[in-house]
């Protein structure tokens, strides 16, 4: 019998393997038939009549290239064995499919909560219409509680703490790992029924009982003030002149709210605040993930700090905004609007050649441009962006 390797994948036959390790961000194992799951032993066993067996070691988390994230994800064993082999007896039988995934990695950072788990979970499970059992590895009770409203929409069954489970659960269909398309978004052409981020947004509104489906249309409601929510940051990439920005926005006839989206924020309450707004603005960072709670046709304004971060900023929050049928504006600050001018001379590579900083690696880029940079908006320059947002809210949209 000839074995072959495909990266980390080991398979002993030329047929369709149980697991697909070809994805850039996630590994997926899909099985239909007689499957036994013993969580306490981190073991998933597929009983097959075939004489050809497969064996895999995998971490069910959609950040497979990130060694630090995966250091917080437990490795699982997935293998196929013959019916004659000695396997543990079923103690609990289920007639619904199961999904095994991890809430390790960077959970607690809202951007990673959505891009690494919640959106891939929606992609993987939406077709089951709630008739699916979640088995969660690296179980974090506070995380499950925080997103319980959404998880209950995706599964009608109590979530199982995979690693502490002593029962042997038996299923007829199991998926290990979550399907990933792109940062915080969905490619409809790769989903069974063409569902998209618009459908995910509808699910979010159902989950958190958000009333507003559409942002204000100023063409029809010219006497009303649109609500602008400014996501503030306390430690890094903070607005140094927030009061000036609020005053300028108020003069343009915005009703302005300033909120900090912290780790301990009550998501149910905060989602209601976001949904009540027509424009969301903030400096590039996890707080912008709250755009998922906005009504359709609302405007997202991302302020991009220095560092050549325009592409990653657009990928992280611009594309998801557009995919959700939100309007998107991106504002790159000037050197004069960055706190870095107080730390470096103007001819320093930090300003003149950010590529040299990026070449030093992620930690150097993060330290220089994300951790040690704050923003002092030129309200005269930024005024045009808020006027453009008003213009978008005046436009008729189908």
Description of the molecule:
The chain has 398 residues and is an alpha/beta fold. It has two domains: 7-180, no CATH class; 227-394, Rossmann fold. The chain is 28% helix and 22% strand. The chain contains twelve helices and 17 strands. It has helices spanning 67-70, 110-125, 141-146, 148-154, 197-207, 242-251, 267-275, 310-323, 349-352, 354-358, 362-371, 379-394; strands spanning 4-6, 9-11, 19-20, 28-38, 43-48, 55-58, 76-82, 92-93, 98-102, 133-137, 160-161, 168-176, 227-232, 255-260, 279-283, 299-304, 327-332. The strands form three sheets. Strands 3, 4, 5, 6, 7, 8, 9, 10, 11 and 12 form a ten-stranded mixed β-sheet that branches. A hairpin with a 2-residue loop joins strand 1 (4-6) and strand 2 (9-11). The longest helix has 16 residues, at 110-125. The chain is globular, with a radius of gyration of 24 Å. Mean pLDDT is 93; it is low at 1-14.
Task: Average the pLDDT over all residues and give the rounded result.
Answer: 93
- Unreliable stretches covering 5 or more consecutive residues: 1-14
**Can you write the helix and strand succession as a string?**
EEEEEEHEEEHEHHEEHEHEHEEHEHHHH
Total strand segments: 17
**What class would the helix/strand composition place it in?**
alpha/beta
Query: What best-fitting shape do the alpha-carbon axes yield?
Result: globular
Range of strand content: 15-25%
Count of discrete alpha- or pi-helical segments spanning 4 or more residues = 12
Terminal CA distance: 60 Å
Instruction: Compute the number of structural domains.
Output: 2
Helical residue percent?
A: 25-40%
The largest β sheet comes out as: 10 strands, mixed
- Radius of gyration from the alpha-carbon trace, in angstroms: 24 Å
């Amino acid at each position: 019998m000839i074995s072959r390797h495909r990266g980390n994948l080991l398979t002993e036959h030329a047929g369709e393997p149980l697991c697909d390790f070809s994805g850039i961000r996630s590994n997926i194992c899909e099985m239909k038939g007689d499957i036994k799951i013993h969580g306490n032993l981190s073991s998933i066993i597929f009983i097959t009549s075939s004489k050809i067996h497969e064996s895999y070691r995998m971490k069910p988390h959609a950040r497979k290239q990130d060694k630090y994230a995966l250091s917080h994800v437990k490795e699982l064993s997935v293998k196929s064995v013959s019916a004659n082999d000695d396997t543990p007896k079923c103690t609990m039988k289920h007639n619904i499919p199961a999904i095994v995934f991890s809430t390790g990695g960077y959970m607690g950072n809202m951007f990673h909560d959505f891009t690494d788990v919640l959106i891939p979970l929606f992609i993987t499970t939406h077709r089951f219409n709630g008739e699916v059992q979640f088995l969660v590895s690296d179980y974090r009770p506070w995380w499950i509680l925080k997103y319980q409203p959404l998880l209950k929409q995706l599964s009608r069954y109590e979530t199982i703490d995979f690693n502490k489970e002593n029962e042997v659960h038996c299923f007829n269909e199991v998926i290990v790992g979550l399907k990933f398309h792109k940062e915080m978004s969905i490619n409809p052409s790769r989903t069974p029924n063409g569902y998209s981020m618009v459908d995910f947004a509808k699910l979010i509104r159902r989950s958190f009982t958000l009333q507003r489906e559409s942002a204000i249309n100023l063409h029809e409601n010219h006497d009303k003030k649109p609500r602008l929510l400014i996501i503030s940051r306390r430690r890094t990439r903070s607005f140094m002149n927030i009061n000036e920005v609020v005053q300028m926005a108020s003069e343009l006839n915005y009703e302005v709210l300033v909120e900090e989206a912290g780790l301990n924020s009550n998501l149910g309450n905060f989602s209601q605040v976001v949904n009540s707004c027509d424009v969301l603005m903030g400096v590039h960072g996890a707080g912008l993930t709250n755009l998922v709670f906005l009504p359709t046709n609302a405007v997202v304004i991302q302020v991009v700090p220095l560092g050549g971060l325009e592409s990653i900023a657009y990928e992280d929050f611009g594309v998801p905004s557009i995919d959700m049928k939100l309007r998107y504006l991106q504002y790159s600050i000037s050197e004069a609007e960055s706190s870095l001018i107080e730390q470096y001379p103007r001819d320093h590579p930090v300003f003149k050649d950010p590529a040299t900083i990026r070449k030093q690696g992620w930690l150097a880029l993060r330290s220089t441009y994300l951790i040690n940079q704050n923003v002092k908006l030129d309200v005269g320059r930024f005024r045009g962006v808020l006027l453009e947002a008003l213009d978008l809210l005046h436009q008729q949209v189908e």
